[in-house]
Amino acid sequence: MSSATARTGQRFRSLTGRPGSKIGKKYSDGVVIAGGVEPQIAEALAAARAGLVAASDVDALRRVANEHAGKGSVLVGLKSSLGSIADIEARKATGRAINEAMQSLEALVAERLVALERAAAGHAAASEAMDLTEHLARRSRGHAHIVTQAWERLEDVFVGMGFKVAEGPEVETDFNNFTALNMPPNHPARSNFDTLFVKYGEPGSTLLRTHTSPVQIRVMQEWDLPIYAVMPGRVFRRDTPDATHMPVFHQIEGLVVDKGITFAHLAGTIEAFTKAFFGSEFTSRLRPSYFPFTEPSAEFDVRSANGKWVELGGCGMVHPNVLQAGGIDPEVYTGFAFGFGIDRMAKERHEVADLRDMYANDLRFVRQF
Ligand code: DAH
Predict the structure, then answer these.
(1) Fewer CB under 10 Å: which end of the chain, C or N?
(2) Which atom of ligand 1 is nearest to the CA of 293?
(3) Is the CB–ligand 1 distance for residue 182 below 6 Å?
(4) Which is more confident, 149 or 120?
């Protein structure tokens, strides 16, 4: 520990080796404590006390304690030199003084240890404490896209009217997307759908569905009758994006097939839906139109309280050829169908000027809703 003692500025002076310290002579004078040793003990004790008090943490405290009361320390050195004191009484008194010094150091170490541990615990408690008055900005949970919101509300309204929800694949057969919907190969209506074909199977046999109507075929083929179904989904057309067109958009299809279904059921369903979805001040109208898969066919519009008519989608009585393609006997069953764009509904509802904004993923846009 010589380096450690050097650090504290102390110098170990052996009882025997101290220059000019004639111990034996002093004792013989009847001095109880060996001359020259007492100040050394006091000095060592004072240095030790100062070091212990200055130690700022438990590790430092142990280091200082070892330095001043451990092997190689001044006090231990003095103790091991006791034998060199000839006078028994003086030796005993010196030994006692050293022991007392050691004991008082031990007591101080114990006392400081408790204080430092308490302080450390206090620090930890303070740094780990929860401030129950602290106000943190609430973590935002985000929300569904306005098209998803419209999609889910549409499902809710139709489910409330007794419909079931069905979904079909986005990659479809030409048969389901066109032929089964009364558009055989080379039918002129096919060109109205700017179709994206997929390299799979026979060229032209597989495509990205251009509408949700092919799900009608799947439902007719797979479900038991009667059918009351809505079929929301993503559809694709080879369109250049502009304010009112996107190559990827969303539709919801409706299909009812039952005995004795008439056009009046179709008109009543559209009207009931309009009031349930938009509000009781809204009303609907049907205009004659043409679709290959319905006969007769209509477009339906919705009018708000302010009197403006907005075109929503197409509808009609399911064409007998379509029922047949779905495996249903058109002599026994009749049905109606409808289909409209979900994106357009979200656009109208939130007064979005440009459809492209809805898909640009700009948070400043998305957070408005
Ligand atoms: N599939 C048509 C389209 O995408 C919309 C449509 C019209 C669906 C009339 C129908 C319907 O079910 O009866 O333009």
Answers:
(1) C
(2) 13
(3) no
(4) 149
